[in-house]
Amino acid sequence: MPRAPRRHDHHHRRWLRPAALAAAALTALTAAPSAAAPLPPDTAARPAPCSRADTLKVPGAAYQRASCLTELTTAGTVASGHTDPADWAGLTPEGLATPRGVPGIQIDGYFPDTSTTNTNHGWNHDSQFVIRLPDRWNGGLVVSGAPGVREQYANDRAFGDWAVANGYAFAATDKGATGAAFHRDGRTPGDALAEGNHRVTQLTRAARQVVARRYHRPPTRTLAMGLSNGGYLVRWQLENHPELYDGGVDWEGTLWRTEGPNLLTFLPPALRHYPQYAAGGAGADQAHRAMTAAGYPAGSEFLWPFHHQYYWDLTQRIYREELDPGFDGATEAGTPFCAPGTPACDADYVYADRPGKVRKAVAKIALTGRIGKPLISFHGTYDVLLPISRSSDVYAQLVRREGRGHLHRYYRVEAGTHVDSLADAFPGRVRPLVPCHRSAAAALERWLDHGVRPPSSRTLKLPAAADPEKLLTYCPLSG
């Protein structure tokens, strides 16, 4: 979908701290400014036992390039320039195993769009996608959107490698706008976020046709998968386009609700109260109570300093700018780390007091819980970017309220947090969630193929005396 002229271009630019941008590679909501190297010419691609690559046209694409590769996983695509490690930096544990031995076809390209934030391959064009077609196909297709405002390769380590190694075709999109300035895209507030839903639908339809042409039959199973904002996309797709999918796996999806809760209701209290808590003194206890009341759980305090430095401020400002640009007038994305009481400071932002047009913008992306296909969700109890009590707990309630509980399983993972790289920084205290994805995917397959329902929704306890190495592969859904 071609985008309307970008808004805010007339604004004076007060931009982001370089330190915050450098740290963005560690988060699921921001992206490092580096990009994949230009793809080699088709004739220079490493040979692989694939055929008819040049006949695989992606419907609706403005540009595409197909390559025969001897390795579709990151074990080979990093060196060949067919992924960008900056897209997925910080999302997975250092010790996560990388599968190998998956030859096939990779198609890179983009759909028509007018915004240019994605610089991968020197294309300077948004709505970029990747489609991977392993030679050994299991009949399935996995489709995903990037987490946060990252680019199309962001899921490669978390579950793209898993997908192709298990025989799935895999397709991913950058959602049509990337980077910390994603909010410049679109005509009206909320447009840039709403475009992400369209781009996943667009890619799913196109990828299904490419799969059918490559393997001479349509996929027997199409799964939506995603983490963080990508998990939100899974929910939205199963609510609005269940006809395209057989099921989905939602990894700590973002919740957008018109009346809240949402990012703009629980991030400002963290910006407002954390500095007083960190300073200690007479007001620290009161600030701590305010933090826990906002959803940041007791026991997760050791994660708060990192999130204050790299997550809360930047995330609040860029998403608030997308949905409520009028809050700070001509200033773009607020004032970094402003003190409460400063004019137009995001620490003082109160969503409930904002005009109705802000809720109208959120309504473009709001979730209902009316899923139409089986969905497995999981979320860490120590997620202090998207606090579980203000996000996935609420979404599970919405699903039940809509009478769709029979289609949903929800697992609260004790001591899991928003990005798995923090399990390396705090071994044994933070549980990586990537093995929970593997368990959820296997359970979804059994549910779809054999009618075996997954274990009932529950909290998955952190094992006593947890071995960090074991936790990289261990996450049974039975508790």
Q: How is this structure best summarized?
A:
The protein is α/β, with parallel strands linked by helices and 479 residues long.
What is the secondary structure topology, with strand pairs?
Blueprint lengths: L17 H6 L39 E7 L4 H7 L4 H4 L15 E7 L17 E7 L5 E6 L10 H10 L3 E5 L17 H25 L5 E7 L1 H12 L6 E5 L11 H17 L4 H10 L10 H20 L32 H8 L11 E6 L11 H10 L6 E6 L8 H4 L8 H17 L7 E3 L7 H4 L8
Parallel strand pairs: 4-5, 4-6, 6-7, 7-8, 8-9, 9-10
Antiparallel strand pairs: 1-2, 2-3, 3-5
Helix pairs in contact: 7-8, 7-9
- What string gives the helices and strands in order? HEHHEEEHEHEHEHHHHEHEHHEH
Strand content: 5-15%
Radius of gyration over all CA atoms, rounded = 21 Å
Instruction: Give the termini distance in whole angstroms.
Output: 44 Å
Structural class: alpha/beta
Task: State mean pLDDT (0 to 100 scale).
Answer: 91
Largest sheet: 10 strands, mixed
Strand order of the largest sheet: 1-2-3-5-4-6-7-8-9-10
**Number of beta strands:** 10
What is the overall silhouette? Answer: globular
Could you list the spans in which at least 5 consecutive residues all have pLDDT below 50? 1-28, 30-34, 41-48
Helical content stands at 25-40%
Give me the number of helical elements.
14
